[in-house]
Amino acid sequence: MKDEFVCPRCGNKDPLFIGTRNGEKYCRLCISYNGKQYDNNYIVSDNIRLNIDYQLSNNQQSCSDKVKEALIQKKNVLIHAVTGAGKTELVFASMEMYLKKRKRVGFASPRKDVIIDLFPRINSSFINCKTVAVYGEHTDEIDGDIVVLTTHQLYRYENAFDLLIIDEIDAFPYKNNFLLNTFAKKSVRGNYILLSATPSIEDVKAIKANNGVIVKLFERYHHGKLIVPTVKTSGKIRMFINILRLLKSYEEKKKPVFIFVPTIKQGKILFSLISIFYKNGAFVSSKEERRKIEIERFKNHELSFLVTTSILERGVTVRNLQVIIYDCSNPLYKKETLIQIAGRVGRKKDCTDGDVYFLCEEENEDIKEAIKEIRTYNDKKDL
Length: 383
Hints:
Helix content is 32%, strand content 20%. The chain has eleven helices and 17 strands. The strands form four sheets. A seven-stranded parallel β-sheet has the order 7-8-5-9-10-4-11, sandwiched between helices. Strands 12-17-16-13-15-14 form a six-stranded parallel β-sheet, sandwiched between helices. The chain has a two-stranded antiparallel sheet with strand order 1-2. Helix 1 runs parallel beside helix 3.
């Protein structure tokens, strides 16, 4: 149509998100994304170098080399690596390669909590480098050699990054989000690397269609196996009794526990019931103001269990962690989510085992497919 309005900023043309003000059309989809923009004249620091006190495994090193080679050839990369494979470490050498050429690097993830955990690791790994973290309510300083940021903040960086890494591309709210995906594309002036333990068929097709490279690593960095979940089917009352029994066993053995719930409402109810029997825990969700405090208390061994929504399904590593998923057959739990949650267990080199319990009313297809895929990963290091 001749009069069709296309937002010059985000490309939206859906009339549901187009308004008119003073006779001029505007886009309601991206209007709230306003704020300070990056400095186009920023000069990346000189003499930046990578400094890590550990050695990559042979398979990690091979993957790291493949990523670098693809970027040298100006090809984009999708890294498909299992949870606990050390995906972040696979891109460090490529980041150093760009930084040494005084090119700007971005490292994005959909979730703020992941950025908060990730920033110190990246910051300490690069010498003579200015690294900044940019996320909601933390946007005073947005210019650096490496910008570690949520995908929501990419709107500030149009045509900014010579190399952009996007972690957890399959995570909410980035997955299938037109606006965030548009901001990501527009922020790249060079090449990009996508990271995921559970990329979609569409992700794989897209990277191949653009002559990109897929690098696979189906082995954890410590060579331990992914934990295959144990499925227990029952009604809700029996699920609750099973949780109490498991908590008793884990408390005696001083093993920390995450109890995942599908919704905030279910989490509040379940936590209030558990609290009658066990006092040393907390409930955390995106809506809980104390979640940072409670998560820190858990990491410091002040709490023995957390009832949590999906906010802790990614980017969290806790030694000796055990995982229980309550109401696992809930439609909100897709195969990819179940794989990610199960991947919280056995991540530490000195503690590669643990328990993952799927508590459900029935074993649905997502549960079956998640377990099948985990077993498949355990049977091979690569495809």
